[in-house]
Amino acid sequence: MVSTGFRSLLVGTLILLPACSFTEDSLWPTFSAEDPAGKNSQTASAAPSAQAQQRSAVTPQPELGTGNFVPTGVTTGQNTGTYVGKKVVELRQELQGLQAQIGSHNGQLQQLRGKLVANSQRYHGTIAAVNARLQVGTTPGNPILVQQFSSAQGDLDRLAQDVASMTSLSGNIGNSATMSAFLAESAKAAFSVSGAIDSDHQQLAILEDEVNRNDVLIDRLLKEVSNDVRRQTNYVSTERANLNLLSTGIRTGEIYGGSLMNIAMANASGGKGVKAGAPTNTAGKRPLIVIRFDRAKVAYQQALYNTVSKVLEQRPNAIFDLVAVAPTTGGQARVSLNSNKARRHSENVLRSLIEMGLPPARVAVSARTAAQARFNEVHLYLR
């Protein structure tokens, strides 16, 4: 059950939306095809709420690590001519080669971080320009916004490529970590080889300390790169969903906000495994929103988004029932025709929800007829 306070919050949000009318026995919003006119219609077309504007901003890029991983170098030594002395020389050369690899890894990391920041700044700037244009109102499918959207999509693709390069770098660092562990074991084992002189063991002790320090440096480097990859991967995934919704906004000329799934994820676990299953009995329940299709085009998307996003902010694991409702008047043939039309309307509403980022598994779709309905309608219920 939804609390009275929660329902009041939803009603308060939707009461100013365009093409909105109310039934006499219900405070829940109903969308009709009556043409808005006069001053009231202009007021209804006002900009979205402050919360909607806040959700329209792109997700800030997560902070990147700041570590700079520079090896300290390898202490020089003298070849004593013994077998162990020759082994020390070999290990020292291998450590020098390994440190050169670490330096290369570190250079690639700093370069990738710079590219990530630059691409993210371009992406954020383009998205901000698109949102600003949508905020003040624009024509559906504005070609300028379409071009900006394409540019933003390219920037996000480059961000994804940078993250993929960083993932590849993480694998290379892992290989260096394996080599470092091998050197540490080799240096330790060399102490037990017979035929060494005191100078050999002194040089082995220094080399072993440097290998251990090198091992710690690699571990820190690998940990920081892995954290960067994890955070940036999640960021790119989130922006993919937001970008999909932005494309819908450009197509309709309206500003929505962040992906519905991202809103749910931001407020709780997000319920990734939540599934609606079979439709439930909605008889006697009050719908969150009623969309009445009594004309060719009903602009319901903005109000639908606002309604569902409000629900997900407070109930991130929410499940919905979407019901196609057809009137029973006009004889059996007319009822059958209206039922088919109502189902197609519900499919379009479901498609809109999916474009807004709501997983289809969260919605159960059903159909029924209603004697009190005058037009084909689609009802959305919170389960």
Overview of this protein structure:
This protein is an alpha/beta fold and 383 residues long. The chain has 9 helices and 6 strands, in the order H-E-E-H-H-H-H-H-H-E-H-E-H-E-E. It has 2 domains: 4-48 and 260-382, 60s Ribosomal Protein L30, Chain: A, CATH 3.30.1330; 83-252, no CATH class. The protein has helices at residues 4-14, 38-44, 50-56, 83-136, 143-190, 198-252, 260-267, 301-314, 331-355; strands at residues 20-22, 29-31, 289-293, 320-327, 363-370, 376-382. The protein has a 6-stranded mixed β-sheet with strand order 1-2-3-6-4-5, with helices on one face. Helix 4 (83-136) packs antiparallel against helix 5 (143-190). The longest helix is centred in the middle third of the chain and has 55 residues, at 198-252.
